[in-house]
Amino acid sequence: MSAGEKLQEMRRLRPVKVEGKNTMNHDRLESRGVKYPLLLARLLLGAVFIAAGAGKLLHPHAFAAIVSNYQILPEQLVNGAAVILPWLETILGLLILFGFWLPGAISLADLLFLIFLAALVSAAARGIDIDCGCFSVKPTASPNFIWYLSRDLLFLLLAVAITIQTYSKQTQREGNHE
User: Is 6 within the bounds of a domain?
Assistant: First the structure.
């Protein structure tokens, strides 16, 4: 490729002004094919966190028993975790659902999904057959580790996709102010 061709290629890929905004010619993240599924994913994750937190808010003692069954936290921290986690999930769900403080909220959601996955894997590795307590404090007849793991992995993947979109938008906005 000649120097002239390289220069043309660089000009083609550099940010250009479009209706007062800087945008990349090759940026497809904002296309309708990606934008709306990610919006639906964000709404779904917000609803998931609200649903997960709401049931536990009403039954903190039962949720404390589930947290204790994981055998990860010292007993002195179980009650605090059982009280704080449902509030955190509910508030986080509302923030994600309505798009408030989205970079921080979705990053915290990523972290929580990683913690939840680690707790599930840890319990399974230690031979603890546990009901995850994700959406209900009522014990199930036969906990299904593979289902819990698959579901949480899917939620994590959705959250990571939203995180990438959120930070890409934020980077674009910061680029527009230069």
Answer: no
Provide the 3-class DSSP secondary structure of residue 130: coil
Buried/exposed 135-166: b ≥16 CB within 10 Å, e otherwise:
ebbeeeeebeeeebbeebeebbebbebbbebb
Range of the domain at 75: 43-172
- Closest CA relative to residue 135, chosen from 143, 146, 125: 143
Quick one: what percent of the chain has pLDDT higher than 90? Answer: 54
Query: Is residue 30 assigned to a domain?
Result: no
Is the residue at 156 inside a domain? Answer: yes
14 Cβ contact list (under 8 Å, min separation 6): none
Instruction: Band the pLDDT of 110: cuts 50, 70, 90.
Output: very high
pLDDT at 29 over 50: no
Give the residue from 30, 135, 43, 51 showing the smallest Cα distance to 95.
43
Residue 55: the pLDDT is 86
Q: Give me the pLDDT at residue 163, please.
A: 92
For the chain, the domain total comes to: 1
